């Protein structure tokens, strides 16, 4: 059976998790086979027959799922067209967003039209940003096809592109109308990409879900979708989505609590920026960043060596890197100052205090940072 056929198979009791925003709440629908019901789901949102829809995807995803998505939308009476873009991290630029804008112009997208992001986090970020800026904002539906996007990037409304000086410095908050997650699409995900997504799942365990962390520990091998198995996969998708939904509902625009979702990202972004986009996948850099944040927390007496060892063990079980790359200390500190989360010149770190608990600190000295990085293997 082909990947497209599998993804188009009959859906079985999909789970819906609501992102309870005060304005414009939206559902996250998770279930095997729901990809083939995208058109039906879009119509249920209130989009009428004839609504213009632009599907943005990348070549690999298009090969497996493009036809399924277009057929579903068109069968539902929607005027759907598709744009295929290159979507590596190095392509996450204003120039690529301009290609989406040009396609929107050619298709004459109106304020009542819709952009569908079909792919991983890079496609989702760029398509979401294009939707946020076309006609000052049109609707977007996120259809993530990577584990990382399913558990993190597609939920929460963060959109944007990279600047040469750092990740995601150009962007906007633009919440989707719907997030549609079909686990069957992970069957065609490269193993390295699956492992990268596990970094974000481990993150949720550390920042607020010790039960999820324990379930991951009990699984042993987390490095392949076969090792994880369908039951744990469904659990981690649901618990991760629910965790993200709770935090986003409490702090939609990252004024406070939502910053905990950046655990591992502050130093992870340094790794991505200084090593060059593409050297490490985003999730790989986050894994390194989590281990580094744990080392800083250890140095500051915030958590125990046992907790740091547990975190390291899960990173290893997921087949993720934990070694800090050979980077110049001055360059690291300079890159940190360019981070979006800097306030009044102080870098805000999300640091763990226990498995399931973190706090935000702005009092981490440069000496503590560099000393902790030097201690990483």
Protein model, in words:
It is built from 14 helices and 11 strands. By secondary structure, the chain is of the alpha/beta class. The chain has 2 domains: 3-188, Rossmann fold; 195-375, Dehydroquinate synthase-like, alpha domain, CATH 1.20.1090. The strands form 3 sheets. A 7-stranded mixed sheet has the order 1-2-9-6-5-3-4, sandwiched between helices. It has a two-stranded antiparallel ribbon with strand order 7-8. Helix 7 (191-208) runs parallel beside helix 11. The N and C termini lie far apart (44 Å).
CATH fold-type name of the largest domain: Rossmann fold
- Class computed from helices, strands and strand pairing: alpha/beta
Which CATH class of the largest domain? Alpha Beta
Q: Which segments are poorly predicted (pLDDT under 50) over 5 or more consecutive residues?
A: 1-11
Radius of gyration, in angstroms, nearest whole number: 20 Å
Give me the count of strands: 11
Q: How many angstroms separate the termini?
A: 44 Å
Mind summarizing the main beta sheet?
A: 7 strands, mixed
As for the number of domains, it is 2
**Number of distinct helices:** 14
| Secondary-structure element series | HEEHEHEHEHEHEEEHHHHHHHEEH
Shape: globular
Under the CATH scheme, which architecture of the largest domain would be assigned? 3-Layer(aba) Sandwich
Q: Roughly what is the average pLDDT, rounded to an integer? A: 93
Strand arrangement in the largest pleated sheet: 1-2-9-6-5-3-4
* Percentage of residues in DSSP E strands: 15-25%
Helix coverage percent: 40-55%
